[in-house]
Amino acid sequence: MTLSTQPVVTFGDAAVRSRKSCSTRFSLTVEAILLILIFIFLSTYPVSASQSTFVIPLEGGRWRTYSISVFVPAAPSWAHNATLRAMSDWNAAQAWFASTYYPGSPYYVLLKGDNSSSAQVQLLDTHSTDYTTLKIVPRFQKDNATIVSVVVHVGTIADQVLFHEVVMHELGHVLGLGHVKCCYQEDLMYPIANAYAARQYFPSTLDLYALHVLAIERTIPLSVMLPMHIQYLTVPEQVFAESVTPFIEISVETSSTPSRGVRSSSF
Fold it and tell me: 41-50: which pairs have CB atoms within 8 A and are 24 or more residues apart?
């Protein structure tokens, strides 16, 4: 039998290794806890739009033509006129975007139609400033990925600034846009209207780029990401102040006359 000449040292080395192992495990445990806490913090912390990627989902369909006739009820007259103005604002926003970023590219045009039009705006006589009552899902009829018709409802709320925001938002759905996510609360396509905002909401470059993709691409993506070369911003109000769009009561799907320089042919 050979006796160890360093029993204490051997035990001592094991003890040191054991202490180091415990220390390492403790250190790893602390690091793991810190990582979990950081993950929870980042998951719950509201990230601002400037810190995130700009993405908007789509409704899963596109129109057969670039010209879309929209029926708007005649009464009440102020809501009728305000809806036509919102249609004009969408036309002006798309024209501005196309000329700024993609000169010569086609874009959609909303034109006043009759009660046989593919897009129908129904005005609800709510007389309410409670925007939560306005969460009505648009009713789409589609042929595969082609939008055949759509009906949207807009409450004739007393606050005309909020009414403009709501009808602009619903027309965004008519054009094929979905709701942006939590980080873009200032975007027109955010799902909850801001009843306390003192300003009007207009389309963003994210909204307009998504419509550009719908207008030129054959395949419809689930969502669209704003490219890096386009800054996220709201269309300048001057664009809408300068816009003048005539509305002709005609079902434009059967018309071969281009509107505002936009191609009117079918896809």
Answer: 46/182, 46/183, 47/183, 48/183, 49/183, 49/184, 49/186, 49/187, 49/232
Q: Render pLDDT for 108-150 as a digit per residue (tens, 0 to 9).
A: 999 999 989 999 998 877 665 454 445 567 888 888 889 999 9
191-203 tens-digit pLDDT: 876 655 556 678 9
Cα–Cα distances (Å) from 122 to 3, 57, 71, 194, in that order, read 98, 24, 8, 21
| Encoded amino acid at 147, one letter | I
Q: How far is residue 265's CA from residue 267's CA, in Å, rounded to a whole number?
A: 7
Cis? peptide before 76, omega within 30° of 0 = yes
Euclidean distance between the first and the last CA atom of the chain, given in angstroms as a whole number = 94
**The tokens of 101 are what?**
């970023």
pTM of the model: 0.70
Spatial CB neighbours of 147, under 8 Å, sequence gap ≥ 6: 59, 61, 62, 63, 64, 118, 140, 141, 176
